[in-house]
């Protein structure tokens, strides 16, 4: 009995010592944790400030000063931020987006930012998420012909023209109906996203946008149905080619290009394509040539009323709501516009003026949208 009592006492003392030790240990741990949390918070705050400064300097011109979007898409967007992990944002910023004006920022890709800089920018963008509006949820319609123009700039080097492979092609043909029928879109999507790096097929998931991948799938879908897909092009380009051909005396090619222009043409000049085609067909060469020249110079013409709101959202920030000018020169009226044909104004707005804030609008506005804006600007020149 006595033995047992002694044992209880020791147990009690041991227990007290343990409790005291544990309590002081947790106290020290808590202090240490608080110190660590504070240090981390301090670091995060500094990194966030660094990220914001980098964003203002490098990204705001295209993505808006609060990431609300401009010539580049909105980055303060709920859908985007929910779907894109930090790793995806990092990779996009590091490598840029081929075929768009989104440049590569990573130093290993010729850009100006270190990995640490990019992490800071990503953290800054991530801060938008909590209060982000959902404005990316706009309708997106995949386009096989946009897919074809992406394919012909990014994939054809390995997969051959029109995806048909080639004699010394390093990669298999994709435009092969029986092969396309063996696999569904899901398989193609995963193959594009993940690549087969060990077999020489690059990983595209971090380089291409979801929309670009959907355009490619639309292209494969059309190929699967045995359709021939023509890469997205503009009426302007077709008219240029037609004029060149006719000047060289090649009627056949000129007609070929006009035939391609017709289904994508729009606006008040649509009927001119038809009448010019008839003149070339009839063989009245001088008349046909001047008709084609006039068409080429006046193209594109759109609808001024539709152009006004487009001007207000896309151009007025720099040229003023009334065309009075601010960052950009005055456009109401403008000697430049008065002295230039529609073809010249179109070519100018497409590429912009290098080294100035006037960037090109090639991948922001369609040919028809730009035509509408130009027609609206014409109403200011009267
Ligand atoms: C010259 C204009 C321009 C600049 C400067 C620019 N971007 Fe972009 N950015 C774009 C365009 C255009 C796109 C859309 C590309 C596309 O169509 O997929 C884009 C896309 C992105 C995307 C992907 C968005 C999405 O919806 O998938 C991210 C992220 C991004 N940019 C971040 C940045 C960051 C960060 C910077 C600065 C370090 C920056 N951009 C600077 C034009 C620009
Ligand atoms: C650097 C060369 C290269 C480029 C560029 C390339 N690929 Fe590939 N691709 C390959 C190779 C090699 C394979 C075969 C891999 C294998 O053997 O598994 C392949 C396979 C594929 C396959 C599977 C074909 C099949 O039937 O098995 C698809 C789909 C594909 N690529 C799509 C694309 C798309 C879309 C692009 C452009 C965005 C592209 N590739 C760009 C090299 C390339
Ligand atoms: C980010 C600012 C900015 C935006 C947005 C912008 N511009 Fe400009 N634009 C300029 C600047 C700056 C110039 C002058 C470039 C120079 O110094 O040569 C200019 C020049 C022009 C000119 C030539 C005027 C002249 O007298 O030389 C035209 C035409 C024009 N812009 C049309 C447009 C249209 C149309 C849009 C919308 C689709 C647009 N701009 C959007 C900044 C902008």
How would you describe this protein?
This protein has helices at 2-58, 60-63, 78-83, 86-95, 115-126, 144-154, 156-159, 177-182, 185-194, 210-224, 235-247, 251-261, 270-282, 285-298, 304-314, 316-319, 335-339, 342-351, 367-379. It is an all-alpha fold. The protein has four domains: 39-131, Orthogonal Bundle (Cytochrome Bc1 Complex, Chain D, domain 2), CATH 1.10.760; 144-224, Cytochrome c-like domain (Cytochrome Bc1 Complex, Chain D, domain 2); 235-298, no CATH class; 304-379, Orthogonal Bundle (Cytochrome Bc1 Complex, Chain D, domain 2). It starts with a helix and ends with a helix. 24% of the residues are buried. Bound molecules: heme C (3 copies). Residues 154-155, 157-159, 170-172, 174, 179, 188, 191-192, 196, 199-202, 204, 216 line the site of one heme C.
Keywords for this structure?
382 residues; mainly alpha; Cytochrome Bc1 Complex, Chain D, domain 2; 4 domains; 19 helices; elongated; binds heme C
User: Are there runs of 5+ residues with pLDDT below 50, and where?
Assistant: none
Would you tell me the structural class of the helices and strands?
A: mainly alpha
Helix content: 55-70%
The H-and-E topology, N to C, reads as: HHHHHHHHHHHHHHHHHHH
User: How many structural units, i.e. domains?
Assistant: 4
Each distinct ligand: heme C
Fold blueprint:
Elements: H1 2-58, H2 60-63, H3 78-83, H4 86-95, H5 115-126, H6 144-154, H7 156-159, H8 177-182, H9 185-194, H10 210-224, H11 235-247, H12 251-261, H13 270-282, H14 285-298, H15 304-314, H16 316-319, H17 335-339, H18 342-351, H19 367-379
The chain binds heme C (3 copies).
């Amino acid at each position: 009995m006595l033995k047992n009592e002694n044992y209880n006492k020791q147990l009690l003392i041991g227990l007290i010592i343990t409790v005291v030790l544990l309590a002081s240990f947790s106290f020290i741990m808590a202090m240490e944790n608080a110190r660590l949390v504070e240090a981390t918070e301090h670091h995060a705050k500094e990194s966030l400030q660094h990220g914001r400064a980098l964003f203002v300097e490098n990204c705001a011109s295209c993505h808006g000063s609060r990431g609300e979007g401009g010539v580049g898409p909105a980055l303060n967007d709920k859908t985007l931020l929910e779907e894109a992990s930090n790793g995806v944002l990092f990779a996009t910023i590091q490598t840029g987006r081929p075929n768009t004006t989104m440049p590569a920022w990573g130093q290993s890709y010729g850009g100006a930012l270190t990995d640490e800089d990019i992490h800071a920018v990503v953290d800054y963008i991530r801060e938008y998420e909590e209060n982000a509006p959902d404005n990316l949820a706009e309708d997106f319609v995949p386009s096989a012909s946009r897919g074809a123009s992406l394919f012909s700039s990014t994939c054809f080097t390995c997969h051959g023209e029109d995806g048909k492979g080639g004699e010394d092609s390093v990669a298999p043909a994709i435009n092969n109906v029986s092969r396309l029928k063996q696999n569904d879109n899901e398989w193609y999507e995963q193959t594009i996203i993940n690549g087969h790096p060990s077999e020489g097929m690059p990983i595209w998931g971090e380089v291409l946008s979801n929309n670009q991948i959907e355009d490619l799938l639309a292209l494969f879908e059309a190929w699967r149905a045995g359709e021939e897909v023509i890469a997205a092009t503009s009426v302007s380009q077709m008219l240029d080619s037609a004029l060149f051909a006719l000047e060289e005396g090649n009627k056949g090619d000129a007609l070929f290009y006009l035939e391609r222009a017709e289904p994508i043409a729009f606006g008040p000049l649509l009927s001119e394509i038809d009448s010019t085609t008839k003149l070339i067909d009839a063989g009245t060469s001088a008349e046909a040539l001047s008709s084609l020249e006039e068409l080429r110079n006046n193209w594109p013409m759109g609808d001024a009323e539709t152009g006004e709101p487009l001007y207000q959202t896309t151009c007025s920030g720099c040229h003023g709501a009334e065309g009075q000018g601010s960052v950009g020169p005055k456009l109401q009226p403008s000697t430049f516009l008065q002295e230039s044909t529609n073809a010249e104004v179109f070519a100018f707005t497409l590429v912009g003026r290098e080294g100035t804030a006037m960037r090109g609008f090639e991948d922001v506005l369609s040919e028809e949208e730009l035509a509408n804006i130009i027609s609206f600007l014409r109403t200011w020149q009267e």
